[in-house]
Amino acid sequence: MPAKAGDGRRQSQSGPSGGKAAPPRPAKAVSKKRDEDASTDVGEGADEWTAAKTLVKPPDQLELTEAELKEEFTRVLTANNPHAPQNIVRYSFKERAYKPIGYVDQTAIHFSLNGNLILKDSDEGRRQSMRSAVSEKASLETSAVISEETEIKDEEGTEDTQAAGEEEAEEAGAAEEAEAAEAEEPPPPRVKEQKLANQFNFIERASKTLNNPLRWEIYDAYVEELQKMEKSKEKEKTKAQIAKKEEKKKGRKLTSLESQSDDITKISKAAKIMERMVNQNIFDDIAQDFKYFEDASDEYRDQRGTLLPLWKFQYDKTKRLAVTAISWNPKYKDLFAVGYGSYDFMKQSHGMLLLYTMKNPSFPEYVFSSESGIMCLDIHNDHPYLVAVGFYDGNVAIYNLKKATSQPSYKSSAKSGKHTDPVWQVKWQKDDMDNNLNFFSVSSDGRIVSWTLVKNELVHTDVIKLSAEGTTMQGPEGLQLQTLGCGTSFDFHKKIDYLFLVGTEEGKIYKCSKCYSSQFLDVFEAHHMAVDSVSWNPYHLKVFISCSSDWTVKIWDHTVKTPMFIYDLHSAVGDVAWSPYSSTVFAAVTTDGKAHVFDLSINKYEALCTQIVVAKKKNKITHIQFNPVYPVVIVGDERGHITCLKLSPNLRKMPKEKKGQEVKKGPEVEIAKMDKLLNLVREPDSTAGK
Amino acid sequence: MTELENYLFSGIPIRTTLDNSTTVQYAGLLCQLTMKARSTVRDIDPQNDLTFLRIRSKKHEIMVAPDKEYLLIVIQNPCE
């Protein structure tokens, strides 16, 4: 607007100098402009003002021609300070001349004011806050002191009638109160400050610095690299042997399996550890008992012992099944296998094989189910992951614990020569000459069969047929039929490889050799009913024990036809087992729920311990096994429960040390013990001439 | 008797039977402690590794089983 006004003035001024025709038009133009520009301000006096403008012309007005007037002048706005010097020059000693400075400071300070705010956490700020706190305290103290003084003055005023001691006490009391009041007041502000500090110094997990990965991460990286290299080497080797296509297929399968694995399976390892820990906590007192408790009252019990119940193992799927076989694993001393089936001829259903560990009483480690009831099992000594199993339907099978399937790895069938009656016992043998695994089985059909695992198949060979003596019958057409005895149990000698014993349903025990397939080495008229179990003594080479449903347990020397010891247990004996730590200790279980433990070196006629070990009545115990390492037995019953019991010290007595003599430990001592006993028994027998 | 949680190593709970705030608290604190325990064990012998961690307090027992990717935490009340 000023420019326009200026233009207007110039034009109006040039009007009279330029020519007469110019004034009226510029005057009108100016007046119009004026109206437009200053519409609100210029009112009725516009005409007079414009008219006066055109006539006045200052004397020093620059006289320009019209062309010069139309010249445009451009104005540029810059940020430069108009007052700043544009060409400051300084003397340069290097060049010995005056040189202009390249850059000149263009800032123009219009206004400056010094403030007096300090940051609270800075040093100065803290000093001041301390000072102010102190001054507050001082003021508080002074106020308290004043109040105290006033109190004292008051007291002094009223104390005329009171004794001096009381005054002092009151003064002291007042002083203490004042101090307490003082003490209370500063701490609350201090406490508040501390609380505030905590709130703002809170360290969040995300803002913490990471633990510097130290050498173990480097080690991990190296290990991974090594593994990768090994894998690639293996792949190369296998590629050379097998067709490449197969390898690729396998590789694809593996990767696809890995990607499909579920979240839960990934955590299985940690979950397993956790399960054990939780179980350990829950059964803590039992675990302590198992490890450390020794019954002190055994001293007063006069050689009798007890069985302390520890854990009870049960699984709901086996509730209706009876325990038909138990076996400890030879490698892992806390792992044991249990076979489930049914002894009842009428009620036959499925079977199960469970493996429990003492570390986890709540749930079995391995579970296998089968269609037919399992009657017996045995774990291989050298390959503790192979379990041989005999079924009620006459089949045998091998389960491989390393594989994840719940089905047996190898199974016999009717084609491959299975038994026609339930298989009562299986036992692994040493690998044959071709390094094939083999085991023996005995069954009620009178055959003892040796099964060999040849190239992933079970091949059978009949070892012996138990022909019952004197029972050859005349069949039709003059055939001589031989009825076979029913084998119910067998046991192989520990040292003499070919020698083994077979117990039958008729109560006879046959001493057989693997080499002779048709004849027995010897026959013992052992029992009146079926022989449930035979077992060689683990130390003494000649002694074996047998038990039967005719309520007796008999100990034999295999060179003598008559038993050495006979025990009547008042109820059908289900199972008998030698203890692994002593040649004279054995345990027997009966169908009335009792477990009997004998030690021949202490008491030849009676059991050291007779104890009911199953909870409910009418629950028959079916099997018993000693743990090879720990002083513990497991007992299986008809309801599918396994109870673990600890042997009290009286049942585990070792031969006493004579003063001045070293204790001889080892199998020789045990053999000698047994020999002594046998001699005692033998002589009266021989003299009596039985 | 027992409560169960499982976490990723970064401290995010995947599955829990407790309420969310407690879970998150346990997650953050126990993750750090496990890492510290693990680095302690491995610094002494790099071939060694932490199998599990058990913290017994007056009120309960906290058991931590670290895995490659996960951390399984169980808080158990003592059975007495």
How do the strands and helices of this protein lay out in sequence?
The complex is a heterodimer of chains A (690) and B (80).
Chain A: H1 2-18, H2 24-37, H3 46-55, H4 66-70, E1 89-92, E2 97-100, H5 123-158, H6 164-184, H7 187-200, H8 215-241, H9 244-260, H10 263-266, H11 268-282, H12 284-292, E3 307-313, E4 322-328, E5 335-341, E6 351-357, E7 366-370, E8 374-379, E9 386-391, E10 396-400, E11 410-411, E12 423-428, E13 438-443, E14 447-454, E15 457-465, E16 467-474, E17 480-484, E18 487-492, E19 499-504, E20 508-513, E21 522-525, E22 531-536, E23 543-548, E24 552-557, E25 565-568, E26 573-578, E27 585-590, E28 594-599, E29 609-612, E30 621-626, E31 632-637, E32 642-647, H13 667-688
Antiparallel strand pairs in A: 1-2, 3-32, 4-5, 5-6, 6-7, 8-9, 9-10, 10-11, 12-13, 13-14, 14-15, 16-17, 18-19, 19-20, 20-21, 22-23, 23-24, 24-25, 26-27, 27-28, 28-29, 30-31, 31-32
Helix pairs in contact in A: 1-2, 2-3, 5-6
Chain B: E1 2-8, E2 13-16, H1 20-44, E3 53-56, E4 61-66, E5 70-76
Antiparallel strand pairs in B: 1-2, 1-5, 3-4, 4-5
Subcellular location (chain B): Cytoplasm, Cytoskeleton
Family (chain B): Belongs to the GAMAD family.
GO cellular component, one term (chain B): cytoplasmic dynein complex
Biggest sheet of chain B, in brief? 5 strands, antiparallel
Q: List how many beta strands of chain B DSSP finds.
A: 5
* Strand line-up across the major sheet of chain B: 2-1-5-4-3
Q: Could you tell me which chain pair has the largest interface and how many residues each side has? A: A-B, 20 and 30 residues
Measured by DSSP, the beta-strand proportion of chain A falls in 25-35%
Chain-averaged pLDDT of chain B: 82
How would you state the average pLDDT of chain A, rounded?
A: 75
- How much of the sequence of chain B is in beta strands? 35-45%
Detail the poorly predicted runs of chain B. none
How far apart, in Å, are the first and last alpha carbons of chain B? 11 Å
Number of helices of chain B: 1
Protein name (chain B): Dynein light chain roadblock-type 2
Keywords (chain B): Cytoplasm, Cytoskeleton, Dynein, Microtubule, Motor protein, Transport
Domain Roadblock/LAMTOR2 (chain B): 1-76
Family (chain B): Belongs to the GAMAD family.
